[in-house]
């Protein structure tokens, strides 16, 4: 019996696949696009998955939302819930078709409740992942040139995510969502001149009207998702165009990217991660009950439930309204100026969000930095930026906690008024305290890094020289550790030219430069200078530790 050996010259392609590939290549240049994208390099770090969680959560929202639109009726027409349908507590009650279809879907459509709960959890995770992703971008300085535009795109996506969540949260027309709409109507009416007209136009008459649910349905399933899809495309295009940022490390510079190609490594990882996110959301939807609207009942303007809070991403607005004293309402010329609603509902959120959106441009104005940055900052090395971010977050945390002041009072048996006054004080002093403490922590960590880069790790082993001198032997850092500690650029306050030239003529633009200098001093006057090549060389001459054969960190410093 003879053995038979077959020799293959490589993988074969079917004629149909080859013809299809040739068709696409000759008409849209598919091979060029595939070659370009397949060779795109993406760095590998766990924090980059935060943006993917947001993206995959939005995909789950689209898939489950398509299912829900098949059964939801976006109408405020009054009907009576069937007497023979579940749940028993709803039988025969008068309600809108929107509420009735939501309850019917949850109890009588196979998989309806599961899809509703997956959709709601995905919405919460979507906004949460975007928020944490933007925090990562902010604290690492990933918004610097050339990514300022992409920062604004991401910020707009966050605002659209809040709009999508609020519009979807209001669709069931239950007591809880109806109260949220009533608050939104109050904020809109508090705006001078345009408020009442805007409310009448939005609701089609006096609140609640008969048009708000169909209009919110259009906003929720068409306008906002369409804008989000368009901006996601822009966001991903800019990521590919600018190339991905990366954390500092040996061999990583502003002119390269160290990582894995898009195909097949990154594609396989992203595909697997999508199913992980989908699986976790499915488990949450199956095992964790959320937004059981039949427990609240259909919307009735005369009912306001105690302990009612919106979803977490809108809780800051609720807290802001609860903290504002009610005495700041005035009647001027026959018109009511409701500062007790206008300030917490419009001014405070506007200030916080505007500061967040414009921070990249403020920092660029201060530093006069016009170079491109593709290597990320360590948050400790940008002390004012990090402290500012923590201060803004602390303000949001206070507002979120204030939105649940009634629950805190009942659960811990505390005075509601005392809790409210405590939060009123904290909203002013906590951001300042957090800024100061965070800045000092960052400076302390910079000093620690400086000492570590110069002397290495302490070993606790003390030796004595022949001369009688005692020293502690330090373990030298490896290439990666030292690179991370010394590779960042020094940041110093901006120096400006004199106010007047030699002829005593005032220099144009001096006021602008003076403003830049003052802000720059606020950013960088308190600082710890990075290690210089001379200091690094001197630290290796004391005999505290052995020289490394190659030191990329020193080469980087000398080149800088």
TrEMBL record:
Keywords: Cell membrane, Electron transport, Heme, Iron, Membrane, Metal-binding, Respiratory chain, Translocase, Transmembrane, Transmembrane helix, Transport. GO terms for biological process: respiratory electron transport chain. Gene3D superfamilies: Cytochrome Bc1 Complex, Chain C. Residues 533-560 are annotated as: Disordered. Its EC number is 7.1.1.8. Residues 249-444 form the Cytochrome b/b6 C-terminal region profile domain. It catalyses: a quinol + 2 Fe(III)-[cytochrome c](out) = a quinone + 2 Fe(II)-[cytochrome c](out) + 2 H(+)(out). GO terms for cellular component: plasma membrane. GO terms for molecular function: metal ion binding; oxidoreductase activity; quinol-cytochrome-c reductase activity. Its cofactor is heme. It is found in: Cell membrane. Residues 541-560 have a biased composition (Basic and acidic residues). This is Cytochrome bc1 complex cytochrome b subunit. The lineage of its organism: Bacteria, Bacillati, Actinomycetota, Actinomycetes, Micrococcales.
């Amino acid at each position: 019996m003879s053995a038979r050996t077959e020799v293959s010259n490589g993988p074969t392609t079917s004629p149909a696949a080859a013809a299809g590939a040739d068709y696409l290549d000759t008409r849209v240049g598919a091979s060029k696009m595939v070659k370009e994208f397949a060779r795109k390099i993406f760095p590998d770090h766990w924090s980059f998955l935060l943006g993917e969680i947001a993206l995959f959560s939005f995909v789950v929202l689209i898939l489950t939302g398509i299912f829900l639109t098949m059964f939801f009726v976006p109408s405020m027409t009054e009907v009576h819930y069937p007497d023979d349908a579940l749940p028993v507590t709803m039988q025969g009650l008068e309600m809108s078709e929107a509420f009735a279809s939501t309850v019917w879907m949850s109890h009588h459509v196979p998989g309806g409740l599961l899809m509703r709960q997956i959709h709601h959890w995905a919405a919460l995770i979507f906004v949460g992942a975007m928020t944490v992703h933007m925090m990562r971008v902010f604290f690492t300085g990933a918004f610097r040139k050339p990514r300022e535009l992409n920062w604004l795109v991401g910020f707009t996506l966050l605002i659209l995510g809040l709009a999508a969540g609020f519009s979807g949260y209001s669709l069931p027309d239950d007591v809880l969502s109806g109260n949220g709409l009533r608050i939104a109507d109050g904020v809109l009416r508090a705006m001078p001149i345009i408020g009442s007209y805007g409310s009448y136009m939005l609701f089609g008459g006096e609140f609640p009207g008969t048009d708000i649910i169909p209009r919110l349905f259009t906003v929720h399933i068409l306008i906002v998702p369409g804008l989000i899809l368009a901006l996601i495309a822009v966001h991903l295009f800019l990521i590919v165009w600018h190339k991905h940022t990366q954390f500092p490390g040996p061999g990583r510079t502003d002119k390269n990217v160290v990582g894995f190609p898009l195909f097949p490594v990154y594609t396989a990882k992203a595909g697997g991660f999508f199913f992980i996110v989908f699986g976790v959301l499915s488990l949450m939807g199956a095992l964790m009950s959320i937004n059981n609207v039949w427990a609240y009942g259909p919307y009735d303007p005369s009912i306001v439930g105690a302990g009612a809070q919106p979803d977490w991403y809108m809780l800051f607005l609720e807290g802001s309204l609860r903290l504002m004293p009610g005495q700041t309402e005035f009647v001027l010329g026959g018109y009511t100026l409701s500062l007790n609603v206008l300030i917490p509902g419009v001014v405070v959120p506007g200030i916080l969000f505007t500061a967040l959106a414009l921070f990249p441009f403020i920092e660029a104005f201060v530093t006069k930095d016009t170079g491109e940055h593709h290597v990320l900052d360590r948050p400790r090395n940008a002390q004012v930026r990090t402290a500012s971010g923590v201060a803004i977050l602390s303000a949001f945390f206070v507002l979120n906690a204030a939105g649940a002041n009634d629950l805190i009072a009942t659960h811990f048996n505390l005075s509601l008024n005392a809790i409210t006054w405590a939060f009123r004080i904290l909203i002013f002093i906590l951001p300042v305290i957090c800024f100061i403490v965070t800045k000092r922590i960052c400076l302390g960590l910079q000093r620690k890094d400086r000492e570590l880069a110069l002397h290495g790790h302490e070993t606790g082993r003390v030796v004595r020289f022949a001369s009688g001198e005692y020293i502690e032997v330090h373990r030298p850092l490896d290439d990666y550790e030292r690179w991370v500690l010394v590779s960042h650029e020094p940041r110093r306050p901006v120096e400006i030219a004199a106010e007047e030239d030699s002829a005593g003529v005032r220099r144009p633009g001096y006021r602008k430069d003076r403003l830049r200098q003052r802000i720059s001093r606020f950013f960088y006057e308190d600082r710890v200078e990075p290690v210089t090549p001379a200091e690094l060389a001197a630290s290796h001459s004391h005999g505290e530790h052995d020289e490394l054969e190659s030191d990329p960190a020193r080469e980087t410093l000398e080149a800088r």
